[in-house]
Amino acid sequence: MHANEILWALFWVFVAAQVGAEIAQRLKWPSVVGEIAAGCVVGPSALGLVPWGGHTQEPLTVLSEIGAVLLLFSVGLETRLDDLKKVGKVAFSVGLIGMIIPFIMGGLWAHATGHPWNRSLFIAAAFVATSAGITARVLSELRVLGRIESRVILGAAVIDDIGAMLLLGVVTAIQGGQHGVSIVGLLLVLAQALGFVTLVALVGTRFLNRKSEVLDAPINPLSPLSLALVACLGLAALASSIGLAAIIGAFLGGMAFAETPHRRTLERQIQVLMTFLTPFFFVVTGLQIQLGQLASLATIGTLLFITVLAVVGKWLGGTLGARSLGAKSAAIVGVGMIPRGEVGIIVATLGKSSNPPIFDDQMFALIIAMSLLTSVIAPPILKRQLAGSSPQELEPDEDSELYRVEATGHG
Amino acid sequence: MHANEILWALFWVFVAAQVGAEIAQRLKWPSVVGEIAAGCVVGPSALGLVPWGGHTQEPLTVLSEIGAVLLLFSVGLETRLDDLKKVGKVAFSVGLIGMIIPFIMGGLWAHATGHPWNRSLFIAAAFVATSAGITARVLSELRVLGRIESRVILGAAVIDDIGAMLLLGVVTAIQGGQHGVSIVGLLLVLAQALGFVTLVALVGTRFLNRKSEVLDAPINPLSPLSLALVACLGLAALASSIGLAAIIGAFLGGMAFAETPHRRTLERQIQVLMTFLTPFFFVVTGLQIQLGQLASLATIGTLLFITVLAVVGKWLGGTLGARSLGAKSAAIVGVGMIPRGEVGIIVATLGKSSNPPIFDDQMFALIIAMSLLTSVIAPPILKRQLAGSSPQELEPDEDSELYRVEATGHG
Fold first, then answer.
1. Which of B72, B152, B219, B342 could cross-link with B251 by S-S, CB 3.0 to 4.6 Å?
2. Which chain B residues are Cβ-neighbours of A269 within 8 angstroms?
3. Is the pTM above the cut of 0.90?
4. Over the stretch B218-243, which tens digit does the pLDDT of each residue have?
């Protein structure tokens, strides 16, 4: 009976993801939106096909964690240090200013509504990260990956991912004590996070790059995929042990493997694993949304307000950062940075599942709903902008990030 | 702390599987043997790196179930009705006699040692199923897949798989009541199992075969892989709901997809999923072996006795079934059928995890150890026999089962 209950839960979660993703695609929404909404529908808030609590909660939570870890590994796998150097200064300034403005706006809002500073900064982190996946998919569907705005957006999204991971490490670590935020503590955490990132991203990357014949040894079980999974799980566990988010470890593991010649094969294989496991992450996120929490007029007002905050903050940051490209292109870049998607959702999940919880049920529902709204709003605006402006084409570069993202799966 | 504990458990389980598989391959043993032994080593019996019990048990159990379900789906995917027709009568008689003799011997032994009949028949089922995976890998390493003995062995292993699944359905269902085995109840269960098998294998297969354009619809989320996973999880849950083992549903789902043009792509993709998830099944099986249960001289005696029983029973059945091929070839077929591998282990796991348990810890350890020993004993004998006999080559047939099994992963 017991095993049976879990099998049905797995089945409904997976089916919900497929149906949700398909409906979203027909509505031209990112499939993430459909998967989370489907989780909401099959969950206790609505149909109740998948219970949340009891025997099924623990296994579903672990599957959802594995899904998130694989997702961030795959984002890391698409992040190459060389590509970052190519897009250069503009992308860096878009990424950085595009983080600072929403972070300040989000933090001020949270503190103004009565949260203490350490909690406010965590909430602010959910306003920061752009979803490279969603934007990349829109750009690739429009076949404008060669435009300079596209290059900058994707490069900035990468800077943004790394920055958000660092920031997440810092804001997670300062949640611990009741004694608020001390400058020394903050610097220590930042140093630790930077140390871990540098160690894994640079040392790990160079090691794998030079020693990649290790990966080619003719032994079946230690295939590149197995080694990548060992690194992914190990770094996730290690990051979690030193107080960072597990997904940071997975992301850095992905970045290290991005420098190996096995990158493309691994991308395809991780994509297959994600087809099975990442839906658990999004659907389980949806399961946990209590629709009742969003049912009051006041809450809907708050939701609209923070969505505007998130949209305006990111757009402003992106546009300011890209101002050297000219007004029109800068505005396009600003809109391209708006979708929060999976990273915002991961921050919300961390906030809810931490012990003690940083987010209550209402804040969790608000942050998820805000992330979804930003991801639904941006793509149609981006399409209209791109259609209405003359392209500044770049030299096509077969091997670049830009031609490769067409294979990007989720988002 | 809690999430961290689970991440480390996942890491150690996965690493144990890789190390175990590599050591096994160097010793020329099937990698399954190495993975289970590694589970034993990292488990509470020895190093204690992965605890069994507490927070981690439930998620590890579910991951291990998913691993077994994927494994049986992939076995089903390699089972085509057409290939069965080709190898014909000899394979059928090898499969059938090779099931009957070990089943009778196992059942008589279990009953003689004091188990009631319904339990004895369940124990007997663990003696029945040949592991197609292990034998196929040995044959492919020796490059003798074209020999008639190879064809018969692999065809018979398929018959054997289907038969074992049916038998498992029957023996599982008769465990329920205290009132022992009634003929009417038995017939009902058999009818139910046969009905499910026929419905899924024949109707499902034909439906997918004719309507395979459904799978080609240009919608990303409903890719053949997603649809296969929906079928796999759904049929597993359904089988479990009507009282059959979940893996029977998965196996039949695999058989249905074996008839579609997407079979080869699916095989590669399921292989990637298995690289990640099936190690959980074998390592978690190893975790549960309490080495202490095998530590007495009497138990070692019993282990050797039932291993001889399992080897002789299967060899006799195989040789008798293949007698029309001549004595030498019949003997080769007999040895080729000996390895029990994953299916015997699945039966043991079902017996231990059922509620109330059918196997106690000692019987569980004995059945697993017996399955492992048969898998270690057979390959070297088979190699010697094949080297010492002149080949009867068949026409090579590019599309046949025999050329395809080289891609077979586990076992």
1. B72
2. 272, 275
3. no
4. 444 468 899 999 999 999 998 888 76
